[in-house]
Design goal:
mainly alpha, two-stranded antiparallel sheet, 2 strands, transport, ND/Mrp_TM
């Protein structure tokens, strides 16, 4: 574990030597080395090194972080071409990757909290430093204050647990807490991060103002911090939380249904994809709240699938933006006639977004539907609405932008670059091939 940590640290001086593509290549190499690090037949924690260790949950989310961060550099080729402070961009990205690595692999509760909060700062710098619009400052303030305000009660609870237990290691957390106040103190920050309906307003704002790399890391990894935290901390409330979870589960499904309706009303491509993230993550939250085998594994697989799929869709929205200089669905029309290759890739990613086979989204949705319906049969009502409307807004996004009469005011179109096809394929291929090895996830 420490070897991967130091390898990331050593990339920081390399970033200042104008080696943009070398850093990206090294990140891919580290991700491949990390895959070989997987010990499939060891249960529980393994690779324990100093205060870091892995289980299957940590392993899969760190691998996703490596993959998305590598693709972020590939997607930000314009920063390199325009000489737009790209060494600083690489340093911010590597610090973000370091903080995510420490968050997901930490065995200690306080170190987890520390790096959970540190990961907010590079994301904020990405949005404010390389965002497109003047409103990015407001989006950054939303992101900062939503997370910080909700995380302070969690810090108080960590000190309380330290006082009561005299240790903060995850693997020994067996305290049985029975207070609703404590439940919300610890979990509110994760409800904001995931994000749950009513505390989701920071996400569409941050996505719309962020550069493509910021959108990728927000959709691909930052939302998964909330799911990871909930999966880790639910063990503290195992005696009473099923009585409370049914309310959160029903509210989350209802919120996901409302957000799906909001998606159909969007005219901005990035805003539509951002709201669809809220809808998908409401399913993840519902699966975690069931606290059964299918729910927990379905939530993990949905997080991995959504990280790849949503990140790919944001890349596509950015590729169209670079050509048409607009994210509006009213101006991006008839693109199928002009750039059919990219339209094919968009169709593949959109079909994965609506859980078409053979994507990981389908596997996770089947597991989550089993889990949520077995928890309470009446949940089937909103689950059916969620599944139906996810297909509706996905097809709306595809058909509205690719079909129709081409807007004559836009004439600056050129075909896809090789690195753009590579970027989109590296999102789509893992998403549709990983289902072949599902037995590794269900040991």
């Amino acid at each position: 574990m420490m070897s991967f940590l130091f390898s990331l640290l050593m990339l920081i001086p390399l970033s200042f030597l104008n080696k943009f593509w070398l850093v990206q290549w090294m990140m891919f190499i580290f991700s491949y080395f990390y895959i070989f690090n997987y010990s499939a037949f060891i249960l529980g924690y393994y690779n324990i090194s100093f205060f870091l260790g892995l289980d299957i949950l940590s392993f899969s989310l760190i691998l996703l972080s490596y993959w998305i961060c590598s693709l972020m550099i590939l997607a930000s080729k314009n920063l390199y071409k325009n000489n737009n402070y790209y060494p600083l961009f690489l340093v911010v990205l590597l610090i973000l990757m370091l903080s995510l690595f420490m968050t997901f692999s930490s065995l200690n509760l306080f170190i987890f909290y520390l790096f959970f909060e540190i990961s907010l700062i590079p994301t904020l710098i990405l949005i404010i430093g390389w965002g497109y619009q003047p409103e990015r400052l407001e989006a950054g303030v939303y992101l900062l204050f939503y997370t910080l305000f909700m995380s302070l009660p969690m810090m108080v609870m960590i000190f309380y647990l330290s006082e009561k237990l005299n240790y903060l290691e995850f693997m020994f957390l067996n305290k049985n807490l029975v207070s609703i106040f404590m439940y919300f103190c610890i979990n509110l920050v994760f409800f904001v991060k995931i994000p749950m309906y009513l505390v989701h307003l920071w996400l569409p704002k941050a996505h719309v103002e962020a550069p493509v790399s910021g959108s990728m890391i927000l959709a691909g990894i930052m939302l998964k911090l909330g799911g990871y935290g909930l999966l880790r901390f639910m063990v503290l409330f195992k005696s009473f939380n099923l009585n409370l979870n049914i309310f959160i589960l029903c509210f989350s499904l209802f919120g996901g249904f409302l957000v799906s309706l909001i998606c159909i009303r969007q005219s901005d491509m990035k805003s539509l994809i951002a709201y669809s993230s809220v809808s998908h993550m409401s399913l993840v939250l519902s699966g975690i709240m069931t606290l059964n085998f299918w729910g927990l594994w379905g939530s993990l697989i949905m997080m991995l699938a959504h990280g790849l799929c949503s990140s790919g869709l944001f890349c596509l929205a950015n590729i169209f933006y670079e050509r048409t200089h607009s994210r509006s669905l009213y101006l991006n029309k008839g693109l199928l006639n002009m750039i059919p290759n990219l339209s094919l890739l968009m169709f593949l990613l959109v079909s994965s977004n609506m859980a078409a086979p053979p994507s990981l989204n389908l596997v996770s949705e089947i597991m989550l539907i089993n889990s949520i319906v077995s928890f309470n049969f009446l949940n089937m009502i909103f689950l059916s609405f969620l599944s139906f409307f996810s297909a509706v807004y996905s097809l709306f996004l595809y058909s509205f932008s690719q079909h129709g009469i081409f807007y004559s005011g836009i004439y600056f179109l050129f075909n896809g670059l090789i690195c753009e096809y590579l970027l989109l394929l590296l999102h789509w291929l893992p998403l549709n091939i990983l289902f072949l090895k599902m037995e590794l996830m269900l040991m």
